[in-house]
Specification:
By secondary structure, this protein is α/β, with parallel strands linked by helices. The chain contains eleven helices and nine strands. Strands 1, 2, 3, 4, 5, 6, 7, 8 and 9 form a nine-stranded mixed beta sheet that branches. It is globular, with a radius of gyration of 18 Å.
Length: 268
């Protein structure tokens, strides 16, 4: 069965209609389907120590591989709940079709979650329908805007952990997340923002910040991944600092609706 041929705008509504009594979230049930369609590209996450791909992050794309902003700019306030659900279902469907054994990282917007116990049902139904294990899904909190209701975010993360999902703070260090998030939210991992990674081999201040952050996370039993790695020098500098989990164009650009492996020589 070819899940990638199913319209992203139809997927969440299909699942919701099958379980309408269990999904009283007004943000998803009311209204028409999304007035636009989209798909996903996937970028690998690598582990240099074990020389392997450990996961893939799903990134929104247009149907002809248009960049994410061309889709995001269409997401008006009234579509945010349905769009968030559609992204989850589309990513899971494509990952299941490709039969990947690695982790699947899905971005989520805290503001698009009405109640975690209700809004997660579409994800659970999709994982069950397509046969994708919940234990291999990581939800990444996108730090693209200031999150004032951290209590709500904590409820989401706590509930996701109860359900067997892993959680990550994306773009950590980009300006909004505070260090107290590491204690209060207790994520499974963080992804260090690319602005701290860029030219880190030439910048002793960035080295000091990333080194301190990595040491702190190690003490808190929080995994660390560096995103936006673009050069061999950045890769090697980070690896020497103990940041062996990385992501970026140096290893692979996001691949349209596919899950590419990484050449072995890029791990060395």
């Amino acid at each position: 069965m070819k899940f990638s041929n199913v319209s992203a705008s139809e997927l969440p509504l299909y699942i919701i209609e099958q379980n309408a009594n269990e999904l009283p979230c007004e943000g998803c049930r009311n209204g028409e389907a999304l007035p636009f369609d989209f798909t996903m590209a996937f970028q690998p996450l690598v582990d240099l120590e074990h020389r392997k791909v450990i996961g893939y992050e799903g990134l929104v794309r247009g149907l002809n591989n248009e960049p994410a902003y061309t889709i995001i700019e269409k997401v008006k306030a009234e579509y945010i709940y349905r769009f968030d659900q559609a992204c989850r279902v589309k990513a899971i469907a494509l990952a299941a079709e490709a039969d990947i054994k690695e982790r699947l990282n899905i971005n989520f917007m805290p503001g698009a979650i009405y109640r975690p116990d209700i809004c997660i049902k579409t994800t659970l139904k999709a994982a069950q329908k397509y046969g994708f294990p919940l234990s291999r899904i990581t939800f990444e909190v996108v730090e693209s805007a200031h999150i004032t209701d951290t209590a709500h975010l904590q409820r989401i993360i706590d509930y996701y952990k109860e359900m067997g999902f892993a959680t990550a703070l994306d773009d950590f260090g980009s300006g909004y997340a505070n260090l107290d998030w590491l204690a209060d939210l207790s994520p499974d991992s963080i992804k260090i923002d690319m602005h701290l990674i860029r030219d880190i081999d030439k910048n002793h201040k960035k080295k000091a910040i990333v080194s301190t952050l990595t040491s702190l996370c190690r003490q808190l039993d929080i995994d660390v991944l560096a995103e936006g790695v673009e050069t061999k020098a950045e890769r090697d500098t980070l690896a020497e600092m103990g940041v062996v989990k990385q992501q970026g164009y140096f290893f692979s650009k996001p691949q349209f609706e596919s899950f590419e492996t990484v050449a072995l020589e890029l791990f060395c």
